[in-house]
């Protein structure tokens, strides 16, 4: 039973016998590494020693796996369950075990985000990087600037796949402050920090559509295409004041010590745009938060210490560390879960490189601590117009990623694969996750004829 656990714990000592389930769990504080726990199960009871609230949460997740797939259903349907006796000692390899969810390209309902939080927690992932704004949508209600959501939260159409055709289907949505507070609290109760992201000065066409004065043109539309837009915020004093107010409102809702400001893909950016990024980074620092940006911000002169999301390649993360920044490794060559899962022609909307389950499992960041905070997988949603499509792209690759993020020591795919197939996929089934079957998409998961942009 202990060899079914995913992510694999630091050490396990199976003992004879079992303990009936449910049984009370005796939780005690203990001097263990951050987020660590020790689970002691004997026939008479269960003791959970925890370093902190996160350790307790992770210990309970391990216990749930030991009960079996039934423990992942929304209600218990069987009696006579038990857990095997033994001791599990465990703590994470990396402090930052993240997943980005892009709710800007396609809105995810609050219920869908809460469910995603549950799935992260089940994998002992601890950061939800919530990508709230982009060219194609603004999802964060700011009462002072109502057009951000009334205009920026909606668009009339999207590209069909990556081809030239439009689907002509209006969609959108946004979260109120209270929706987001609820998501934050729900995540916190599961040892997950929500790191919000407002993308500036590019990827901001939804904001420009709402308030064209933030840009240089008299009118903009929330973008109905994918790609890299050349529309940037104009780096004026009034745009800066506007975004200082937007970020101040963000800080009221998100207690995260790290706040993301984007900074990626800004074709045509000038020194003034870079200064605009620097001033907003300073604004966050002055309010006691650490700004996070994508690795393009390394071009900004006199950048204060930040967290850099190294997405273009591993080398960017190494450069960031040399420049004195902390780094979250999230390179698109390895951990972009919007990229296709196989080279098979049936793979739906084939985007990016082939990142198989095995590729993701094998991911090793090129940087080490202390500058390396951890690793993050990305679920960009240009092509994920429903939660079912998110399930398909994220799982089971995110399960493999979770083990790379949590477990120290060598990883052997030949050992992992049967553990995933025989023990973890039944947990995902019990949770109702529509993951990609190991041998390829089910017929209704394919998208015949919808063009992608394979690399
Ligand atoms: C690049 S990663 C982007 C995103 C896209 C993604 C698609 C990054 C900082 N920018 O805007 O959604 O590629 O894979």
Automatic annotation (TrEMBL):
Matching InterPro entries: Beta_hexosaminidase_sua/sub (IPR025705), GH (IPR017853), Glyco_hydro_20_cat (IPR015883), Hex-like_dom2 (IPR029018), HEX_bac_N (IPR015882)
Molecular function, one GO term: beta-N-acetylhexosaminidase activity
Transmembrane segments: none
UniProt enzyme class: hydrolase
Listed EC numbers: 3.2.1.52
Residue ranges of every copy of the Glycoside hydrolase family 20 catalytic domain listed in the record: 94-267, 274-408
Catalytic residues identified in the record: 265 (proton donor)
Signal peptide start and end residues: none
Family listed: Belongs to the glycosyl hydrolase 20 family.
The name this protein goes by in its record: beta-N-acetylhexosaminidase
Phylogenetic placement of the source organism: Bacteria, Bacillati, Actinomycetota, Actinomycetes, Pseudonocardiales
